[in-house]
Amino acid sequence: MDIILSWETIAALFLVAAAAGFVDALAGGGGLLTIPALLLSGLPPVSALATNKLQACAGSFSASLTLVKKGVAHPGAIRRALVLAFIGSAIGTVLVQLSPAQMLTVLIPFLIAGIGLYTLFAPSLGQTARPPKISRQSWQRYIVPSIGFYDGYFGPATGTFFSLSQAVLRGTDLVRATADAKLLNFATNLASLIFFLLGGHIVWLAGLAMMAGQALGAFFGARMVVKGGTRLIRPMMVMMCFAMVAKYVFFS
Question: Where are the transmembrane segments (predicted)?
């Protein structure tokens, strides 16, 4: 898309994306940083979402690759979930280019606030594996594509939703859930990117600069997942949830 940005703006977007990549690898929610930054740079909303997907795809790929190499994430174990996440995101991306997103904008603060409160007041969440509340098949068939749809349609906190859906509904420990969330988030980002590409909404210079920043931040963030475990991930989730609620309530 033919939008001209200054080099100072491009440099600022690179730094924001690096911070977002680090945060995303730990707890999700990096979109809280990158989407407002893109909007403040003067991009139209759909172009901001599209350009955000270009850099988010790089970040989730970098984090996923690091976790796979370290033996924490296993793509073969969630192959079906990856396909369904991709399909859900593709559908959401097509629809966001055809319809307004006012309804989601109203509902999201309440949803994120609920996640933050649950995480804050559930001290044992994700520290160890727990008995599942729903079957693996149900989680893959219904929860995963629904989150994928949300990511294609809007996006912020998708990694958090994937992580907590496994921890809460499947009883998975939070380190493993976070590792799987990186793979699923890459699948949804890739699907969304493809369909935004077809729509011609990406601002390439901004997106490529942010891709480099995201990849750098995600590389270090993924290493912190392995080293920090649940003690680091859980407070990051709470912080990002309430930061996003504040953003939507006070700065939308």
Answer: 80-98, 104-121, 142-164, 193-220, 232-251
Can you give the pTM of this predicted structure?
0.78
User: In this structure, what token pair is assigned to residue 159?
Assistant: 């990694």
Inter-residue contact 199 to 97 (CB < 8 Å): yes
pLDDT tens figures, 60-101: 888 888 889 988 889 999 999 999 999 999 999 999 888 775
* 35 DSSP assignment: H
Residue 209 structural domain = 5-249
User: What are the backbone dihedrals phi and psi of residue 174, each rounded to the nearest 5 degrees, phi first?
Assistant: -70, -30
Residue 217 carries which side chain, given as an amino acid letter? G
Name the token pair of 229: 């475990």
Q: What is the DSSP string of 136-187?
A: HHHIIIIIHHHHHHHHHHT-TTHHHHHHHIIIIII---HHHHHHHHHHHHHH
How far is Cα of residue 244 from the mean position of the Cα atoms in its chain?
13
Number of domains the chain contains: 1
